[in-house]
């Protein structure tokens, strides 16, 4: 009698858990799209901003947070802006993105202040944006 009273609940539990293990037929359309990186803008994303002719306009539409300045009390005299690089060459501040056409870039990457200083050296209090034109 003891064995029968424990077997039935276990059998019911097993049946319930197996019920959710069916095939995934028709569910592929409902799967979420892969998450985009907040630090990278791809060529595909740039193509979706049809109203933008320069990277400045496109990036303000796609990643406005890249241009927000976080004031710091550590070095208030060294405020400044995010630094822009074209491939490996330093261009200047964010306004230089107005000189680059959207179709010139293949990938654009944002670096935090610490990442930018590790990659490009000191002087990147607000990070860096690197425009890569070819692979």
Question: Can you put this structure into words, describing what you see?
Answer:
The structure is a single chain. This protein has a single domain (36-132), classed as Beta Complex (Ferric Hydroxamate Uptake Protein, Chain A, domain 1). A 5-stranded mixed sheet has the order 1-4-5-2-3. It has 135 residues and is of the alpha+beta class. It contains 4 helices and 5 strands. The chain has helices at residues 2-19, 43-47, 55-62, 113-120; strands at 40-42, 83-86, 89-92, 107-111, 128-132. The chain is globular and about 40 Å long. Mean pLDDT is 79; it is low at 16-28.
CATH homologous superfamily annotation: TonB-dependent receptor, plug domain
Q: How much of the polypeptide forms β-strand, as a percent range? A: 15-25%
Largest sheet: 5 strands, mixed
* Adjacency order of strands in the biggest sheet: 1-4-5-2-3
CATH class: Mainly Beta
| Helicity level | 25-40%
Q: Which residues sit in consecutive blocks of at least 5 with pLDDT less than 50?
A: 16-28
What would the average pLDDT be, to the nearest integer? 79
């Amino acid at each position: 009698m003891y064995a029968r009273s424990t077997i039935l609940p276990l059998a019911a539990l097993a049946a319930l858990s197996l019920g959710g293990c069916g095939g995934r037929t028709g569910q592929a359309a409902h799967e979420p799209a892969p998450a985009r990186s907040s630090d990278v803008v791809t060529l595909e994303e740039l193509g979706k901003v049809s109203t933008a002719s320069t990277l400045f306009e496109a990036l303000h539409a796609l990643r406005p947070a890249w241009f927000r300045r976080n004031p710091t009390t550590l070095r208030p005299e060294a405020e400044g802006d995010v630094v822009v690089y074209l491939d490996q060459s330093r261009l200047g501040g964010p306004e230089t993105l107005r000189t680059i056409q959207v179709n010139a870039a293949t990938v654009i990457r944002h670096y935090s202040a610490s990442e930018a200083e590790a990659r490009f050296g000191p002087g990147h209090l607000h990070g860096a944006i690197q425009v890569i034109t070819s692979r």
